[in-house]
């Protein structure tokens, strides 16, 4: 049992009996403030009684399905480390596709204006500001708790981002942008996926639009519907969506009068992002 261990190597071995070996290693490193090399080279390094107790509590939470990122308060996105908490979604690798597509559209603009709608912990806004220091970057979220996390991440990476609390475009007034990016809630209400893979621990308002009997597209409709009023000429909207929503999203983009409508594949070969331009 973990309460009987005295060293980091022993803690890793015992914790691995309850949870995934990699998760156990990362929790030991987090609690002991050590590296993977320390575990391999100095496995007899001592753990305090308090550290053992903290580790045991974290292992119990992980074995109960709580995501590792919430336990270590950190997640990586586009090579940067971001603070996360249960107030925000955990960044997913597939969302990095939004960054790649944004880079392609911003490379010819010396000082682009960018807005991130539904910023969560701020990964898109902060990453794009780090990539384009001359950009003017704004970020919007309805959750004040999420904006607090995003603000800390912006400070951590010295990224100057203007944060706004509100519903999509509402706090932005008449502002227009070269690029709108969004990773909004798109899982349909009561979808069984919401009860799997740690999702019950994540903020439901960031996962689903909450429309009973809906198709999960309510937030996407609002974002696309307001895009033309907030895009500069030749500006782009890029929006992440569900694995089976690309055709519907493209139809919404066409209906909104946007041009160059397209969808792009993520690393799993799923159409994960769709977008269009205001010509």
From TrEMBL:
User: What residues does substrate bind to?
Assistant: 183-186
**Every Release factor glutamine methyltransferase N-terminal domain range:** 18-72
Q: Which GO terms describe its molecular function?
A: nucleic acid binding; peptide chain release factor N(5)-glutamine methyltransferase activity
Q: What class of enzyme is it?
A: transferase
Q: Its Enzyme Commission number?
A: 2.1.1.297
Its domain of life?
Bacteria
Keyword annotations from UniProtKB, A to Z: Methyltransferase, S-adenosyl-L-methionine, Transferase
**Enzymatic reactions:** L-glutaminyl-[peptide chain release factor] + S-adenosyl-L-methionine = N(5)-methyl-L-glutaminyl-[peptide chain release factor] + S-adenosyl-L-homocysteine + H(+)
Q: Name one GO biological process term.
A: methylation
InterPro entries cross-referenced by the UniProt entry: DNA_methylase_N6_adenine_CS, HemK-like, N5-glutamine_MTase, PrmC_N, RF_methyltr_PrmC, SAM-dependent_MTases_sf, Small_mtfrase_dom
What sequence ranges are listed for the domain Methyltransferase small?
101-189
Please report a single Pfam family linked to this protein.
PrmC_N
SUPFAM superfamilies given in the database record? S-adenosyl-L-methionine-dependent methyltransferases
Specify which residues bind S-adenosyl-L-methionine according to the UniProt entry for this protein. Answer: 118-122, 141, 168, 183
Q: Please describe what this protein does.
A: Methylates the class 1 translation termination release factors RF1/PrfA and RF2/PrfB on the glutamine residue of the universally conserved GGQ motif.
Name the family the entry cites: Belongs to the protein N5-glutamine methyltransferase family. PrmC subfamily.
Q: What is this protein called?
A: Release factor glutamine methyltransferase
């Amino acid at each position: 049992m973990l309460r009987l261990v005295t060293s980091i190597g022993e803690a890793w071995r015992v914790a691995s009996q309850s949870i995934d070996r990699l998760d156990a290693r990362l929790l030991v490193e987090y609690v002991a403030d050590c590296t993977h090399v320390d575990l391999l080279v100095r496995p007899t390094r001592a753990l305090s009684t308090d550290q053992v107790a903290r580790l045991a509590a974290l292992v119990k939470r992980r074995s109960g399905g709580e995501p590792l990122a919430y336990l270590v308060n950190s997640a990586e996105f586009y090579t940067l480390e971001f603070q996360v908490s249960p107030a925000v979604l955990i960044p997913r690798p597939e969302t990095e596709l939004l960054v790649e597509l944004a880079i392609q559209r911003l490379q010819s603009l010396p000082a682009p204006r960018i807005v991130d709608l539904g910023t969560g912990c701020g990964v898109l806004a902060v990453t794009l500001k780090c990539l384009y220091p001359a950009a003017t970057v704004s970020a919007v979220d309805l959750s004040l708790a999420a904006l607090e996390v995003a603000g800390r991440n912006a400070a951590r990476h010295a990224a100057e981002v203007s944060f706004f609390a509100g519903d999509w475009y509402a706090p932005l007034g008449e502002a227009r942008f070269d690029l709108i990016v969004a990773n909004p809630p798109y899982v349909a209400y009561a979808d069984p996926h919401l009860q799997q893979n740690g999702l019950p621990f994540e903020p439901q308002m960031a996962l689903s639009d909450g429309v009973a009997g809906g198709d999960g597209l309510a937030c996407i409709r609002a974002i696309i519907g307001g895009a033309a009023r907030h895009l500069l000429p030749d500006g782009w909207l890029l929006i992440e969506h569900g694995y089976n929503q690309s055709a519907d999203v493209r139809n919404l983009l066409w209906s909104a009068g946007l041009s160059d409508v397209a969808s792009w594949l993520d690393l799993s070969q799923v159409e994960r992002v769709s977008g269009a331009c205001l010509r």
